[in-house]
Design a protein that fits this description.
The strands form 2 sheets. The protein has a 6-stranded mixed β-sheet, with helices on both faces. Strand 7, helix 11 and strand 8 form a beta-alpha-beta unit. It folds into 2 domains: 207 residues, 3-Layer(aba) Sandwich (Rossmann fold); 85 residues, no CATH class. The chain is built from 14 helices and 10 strands. 30% of the residues are buried. Helix 2 runs antiparallel to helix 5 and helix 7 packs parallel to helix 10. It is elongated. With 344 residues, the chain is an alpha/beta fold.
Length: 344
């Protein structure tokens, strides 16, 4: 089954078309590269895949189906709750003066305590016995607005990044985003958040489940740091690492969620030649461990050295897709990077 497939993906920002009609497919255990000049739309494409942007047109399929948050029974219950709560709130707001008089003014006595039970009963009785035009119409209109707002919230968030992450997709960013004051282990544990099941109460009351889960995930974090070559620095602060090792830590954090596919956004940026060679070996190890890799990169030695297939973008449009040998000999790709004689 194809891990990632895009069908005619287009991303617009007003009148600006950042990505236009892109089609490609990534197979399991494959290293797939997306290349192109600066401003070609590569990171925007990644953002569309990971749910940060919703495609203006087209479909992104993960593991054979479009990854959207389904309309579950729980979500329908939330719509009902929104209808009832906002509807009743609107009816009360419209009739607040009448209700205040019936419940507070008419039952106010100097004798204490105030008859709260009687006043609350009178409140609901007054609301129920009002003319339908005064209570039912505001309730229906307010409920409809509340239900519509809940639906729009669900619709806009149904491809939210957290849902995409739970479906098995992780990524790194062009600009390193680590928690510098935390240790390496703690940074990796952040990537495991959506896998943790011990909730607030388990942590608050220090239940056995909390301690067993913490031991399990700390052990996994240590193994991931060993995998990327940072095991001996596990307790160091992330901010103390040199640049190349910070990139490795970010990859370890992405792998902490046990993704089926990891997206790397310019992982070799700022690295020296020896660090690039080490990174190439790490990317191959990630692939060999069973995780599909999709990467954006300008470093052509890395791209040609590790990629199984390559997608080339220019001005948001797809100009080529194929094996490294095919891309290397494609005139359009050469022109995109080096320019044509007419532009010389």
């Amino acid at each position: 089954m194809t891990v990632l497939r895009t069908r005619g993906v287009t991303v617009r920002f007003g009148g600006l078309v950042a990505v236009e009609n892109v089609h490609f497919a990534v197979e399991p255990r494959q290293i797939y590269a997306v290349i192109g000049p600066n401003g070609a739309g590569k990171t925007t494409l990644f953002n569309a895949v990971t749910g940060i942007y919703a495609p203006s047109e087209g479909v992104v399929e993960l593991n054979g189906r479009e990854q959207v948050d389904p309309l579950t029974k729980l979500m329908v219950l939330r719509f009902v709750v929104a209808f009832v709560s906002i509807g009743i709130g609107t009816a009360i707001a419209v009739n607040i003066e009448t209700l205040w008089t019936a419940t507070i003014v008419d039952h106010y006595t100097f004798a204490q305590p105030f008859p709260w039970a009687l006043a609350i009963g009178e409140f609901w009785s007054t609301l129920w016995n009002m003319p339908r035009t005064d209570s039912l119409i505001p309730l229906v209109l307010g409920g409809a607005v509340g239900c519509a707002a809940a639906f729009v919230s669900w619709w806009r968030g149904r491809r939210a990044p957290d849902h995409i992450a739970r479906s098995g997709v992780a990524r790194t960013f062009q600009n390193i985003r680590l928690f510098n004051e935390l240790s390496l282990v703690q940074n990796v544990l952040v990537g495991m958040d959506h896998r943790m099941r011990a909730g607030f109460l388990s942590a608050l009351f220090r239940l056995p489940r909390f301690f067993s889960e913490r031991r399990k995930f700390h052990a996994e974090a240590g193994q991931l740091l060993e995998f990327v070559g940072l095991g001996s620095r596990a307790d160091n602060a992330a901010g103390s690492l040199p640049y190349g090792l910070r990139r490795r830590l970010e990859i370890a954090r992405a792998l902490a969620g046990k993704p089926t596919m990891i997206l790397l956004d310019e992982p070799a940026a700022g690295m020296n030649p020896s660090e690039v060679v080490d990174l190439m070996a790490l990317i191959r190890r990630v692939r060999d461990a069973g995780t599909t890799v999709v990467l954006i990169e300008h470093h052509m030695r890395l791209v040609m050295g590790v990629s199984d297939r390559i997608l080339v973008l220019q001005y948001g449009k797809q100009i080529a897709e194929g094996t490294p040998a095919e891309i290397r000999s494609n005139p359009k790709c050469v022109e995109a990077y080096l320019g044509s004689e007419d532009h010389g």
